[in-house]
Structure formats: structure tokens, C-alpha cells
Amino acid sequence: xxxxxxxxxxxxxxxxxxxxxxxxxxxxxxxxxxxxxxxxxxxxxxxxxxxxxxxxxxxxxxxxxxxxxxxxxxxxxxxxxxxxxxxxxxxxxxxxxxxxxxxxxxxxxxxxxxxxxxxxxxxxxxxxxxxxxxxxxxxxxxxxxxxxxxxxxxxxxxxxxxxxxxxxxxxxxxxxxxxxxxxxxxxxxxxxxxxxxxxxxxxxxxxxxxxxxxxxxxxxxxxxxxxxxxxxxxxxxxxxxxxxxxxxxxxxxxxxxxxxxxxxxxxxxxxxxx
Length: 274
What we know:
Oligomer: single chain
Low-confidence stretches: none
Order of helices and strands: EHEHHEHHEHEHEHHHH
Distance between the termini: 15 Å
Helix content: 25-40%
Structural class: alpha/beta
Number of strands: 6
Mean pLDDT: 90
Shape: globular
Number of helices: 11
């Protein structure tokens, strides 16, 4: 593959928890997989919520996990970490599971890696010729894990919940962190924009927070994710929101988001993923 045909890598990042990172990662994967794209989700959150949502087996029971991506292992060893058994509804989707062992990765990188922010990029690069798109679910904090995700990504998006003012706190710090990582390690990184989540355009507060987010980050995705109790039901049931409410508003939101990103990124279909 030429560099232009390598799979895009999207880092979904925000150091605030509960803003919709994992919900977006798994439902975007489901929608892209449904349209025939081969998707890899990399779960860098030690809480492993994306892995719990996607996988049949509990992540703690798996022999290898995303920590292996930071330890200089060969591509063959990384391939062993890729999980292909997923819950119903996640067609054409594989994942590399998160684990509590990720909590120790940053200490390992500081102690042993000569380039602690570049380890993930070296492991991800060969996978870009196997999958059509790679989605990284980042941990809810700024540090070496998130920095590695930014350094290895081709694009990033920032979910921001609009029905509370608190997710806006620290967005300036987040954006400054991304720009520092990009300038130093990944100058080609592209900003897909802010993804507004739990959004209600009828509420004045939501509108105000959306405008503030645009002012801070610079761009807003044209698709928003509305608020729905079905999102929680899908998480408990470990399935895409589509299986809970096929024609529901949030299902349509993620369907539109996948279509928008497919067009924006000009995704290609590679055939069967390894």
C-alpha cells in the first residue's frame, strides 16, 4: 500500500470521563463494520470499557492486551493481542483489549524506552495496511498513553458533553497538549473536530457550551449525538445502540457520523482483515 492508502487512525480523546469516548468508539466501529469496512479498535483505557462492550470474554481473562503495544514487541506478538471474537452486532470489527496493566505502562516507558512517546506508532503502523480504519479509545487523562495515541494517529476527535458545563473544564489544556504532541512528533495530525454528545439543540445551555467548544477547539463536527437512555441499555447489553433501537435517534446519529467520516477520510475496503 502507498502511504495515502494506509488506514486512517482516529484517536478519540478527552481527559474528562463520561463524555462519550467509549460509546463513540464502539458504535462508530459497529456502523463502519456494518458498511463493510474492516475496523480495529485499540482500547488504551485501563478500565477496558470498550473491551467489555466488544468482547465475548472478559478482558482480564485474556492472555495479552494493549500493554504489549508499548514494549517493543514484534508485529507477530502484537497480532496475538488482536481479538476477533466479538459480541453480535459488531460485524467486521476486531479489537486489542484494555487492561489494568496499562496503569504500569507509563512507568515502564519512562524507565526503558528511548522514545517513550513513539512506541505505539511503531506497533500501529504495520496494522494500517491490514484494516480500513483504526480507532483508539484513549484513557481519561493526559500522559504517556494519550500522548502515544496522538503521536500514532492520523486524525483525532474530541467528544464533549453539552448538557453539563464540567466537560468544558480543561479543554484548553487538552487542546494545548494535542498541539504540543502534534508539533513535536506528528505534524500531519488532522483535527476532525469536536463531537457534541448528549446534545439537545433546544436547550440554551447546550447551545452555549457548543459555541464555547467551537471557540476553544476551532471546529465542530456537523453531526451531533443526542441524549438517550438507550445508550446505557446498549452498554449493559454489550451491543451497538442499533440493536436496542434500530431506528432511534442516536442510532441515526452514529450512522450519519460513520457516513460523514467515511466520506471525509475516503475509506477504502481492504477485504478480509487478518
